[in-house]
Amino acid sequence: MPHDLEAPCGDDADWSPLYRARGDEVVPHRPVFTGDVFEKVVIQYPDGSTKRKNVIIVQHPCAMRSNGVDLVSRLLVAEVRNHRVISPGEWTGFGKNIPLPDLVPTVETGRRNQAGFFDELHLVGPHTLQDRIACLSQLGVNLLLQRWIHHNSRVVVPTFTLNEVTSGVFEEADLIEEWCEDRTTAGQTVEQATKECVTWLREDGGGGVMRQRMLEDPQSRSGVRKQMRVALRALPG
To answer: How far is it, in rounded angstroms, from Cα 63 to Cα 187?
Structure first.
C-alpha cells in the first residue's frame, strides 16, 4: 500500500513537534546532526564568488563523520529561505522542500516561516557552520529524510521505518550532549568531552556488546544511560 508524505502535526498546526531546539534553546555542545539549521554560512560558487546563506544539513549522521567524532571535509546542505506556511494537509505535496514553519518563532515577519530546498544544494566545510539556530526533533529528522528520499527516488518511506535507523544515533547525540554538559562544567573543552564520550560508548556495555551498538535497541537504551551517569560520577571533577 503506498504511503503519503507525512506532516509533524494534526489540524491544529502546532509545529513544535518538528523541533528539538530553536534559538536560545540550541546548545553549542550538541553534536552537529541531520536537520540542524545554520545561518550565515559562506557558500562558494564555481566561479569563486561567495555568498552567505542559511542552510539545513540533509546527510544521515553516520555519513557526516569519518571516525565518529570528526566531521568529513564537505557536508551536503540545502538552502533555507523564507516560505509561506504549508498547512498539515499540504505536506503531501511540496516534495522539493522540507517546510520549516515557526523556525524563528520570536519574530512576526516572513523570516518566521522558512523551508529547506532540495533543488538548491551546496557542499560546505565544517568550519563554516558556526551559527546554529535550530535542531530538528527525532520526528523532524525522520520527516526530513522521508522528503529527501522521496525527492531523489519518488519513494515514500514511512517515518516509523526511518525511525529504526535514526533513533539509535539520535539517542547517541543526546548522550554526548549530556556528557559534554557535565564535562565542560568540569573544565574540559567540547572537543575533549565529545571524544571522551565516544570512546566510552565504544566500550563493552555488557555481554560483549559495545554500548554504541546497544543504543540501536530501544530496550537497552535506558541501561546505557544509567551506565553513563554512573561513569560521569566516577570521573574526576
So the answer is: 30
Residues 200-209 have pLDDT tens digits of 999 999 999 9
Q: What is the extent of the structural domain holding 210?
A: 164-234
Q: In degrees, to the nearest 5, what angle opens at C-alpha 68 toward C-alphas 210 and 62?
A: 95
Matching residue, cell 518563532: 105
Query: How many angstroms separate the CA atoms of 130 and 224, rounded?
Result: 31
In this structure, the answer to whether residues 52 and 152 fall within a common structural domain is: yes
How many domains would you assign to the chain? Answer: 2
Is 220 domain-assigned? yes
pLDDT (tens digit, 9 = 90+) per residue, 22-74? 999 999 999 999 999 999 999 988 888 999 999 999 998 889 988 878 899 99
Residues 45 and 123 grouped into a single domain: yes
CB 13 within 8 A of CB 88: yes
Give this prediction's pTM. 0.94
